[in-house]
Amino acid sequence: IHAEVQLKNYEKFLEEYTNQLKGIEDALDDSVGDVWDFTLDPIALKVRSQRTGE
Questions:
Q1: Distance separating alpha carbons of residues 30 and 39, to the nearest angstrom
Q2: How many helices (H) and strands (E) does the chain have?
Q3: d(CA 1, CA 36)
Q4: What separation, in Å, do the N-terminal and C-terminal C-alpha atoms of the chain show?
Q5: pLDDT value at residue 4
Q6: CA dist 16 to 13, 21, 49, Å?
Q7: pLDDT by residue (tens digit) across 12-54?
Q8: How far is residue 13 from each of residues 2, 24, 36, 45, 48, measured CA to CA in Å?
């Protein structure tokens, strides 16, 4: 009986985990075609070349 309860709990866990992974997959699929527009991004990037000592 204890093993059956553990099995049911494990099945429930796997079902919930599968749903979470599916949600993540769907969210990533929606954003795959998006292009990052750095002019609209609120985070500014500093681009500079680095010199090495000669």
A1: 22
A2: 1, 0
A3: 54
A4: 75
A5: 95
A6: 5, 9, 48
A7: 999 999 999 999 988 887 766 666 666 776 666 666 777 766 5
A8: 17, 17, 36, 42, 49
- What per-residue confidence (pLDDT) applies to 42? 63
CA Rg, the chain, in Å?
23
Q: What residues have CB less than 8 Å from 45, skipping those under 6 apart?
A: 38
Cα gap 20→28, rounded to integer Å: 12
What is the pTM (predicted TM-score) of this model? 0.51
Name residue, tokens 């993540």. Answer: 24
What tokens appear for 42 in the block?
A: 């609120």
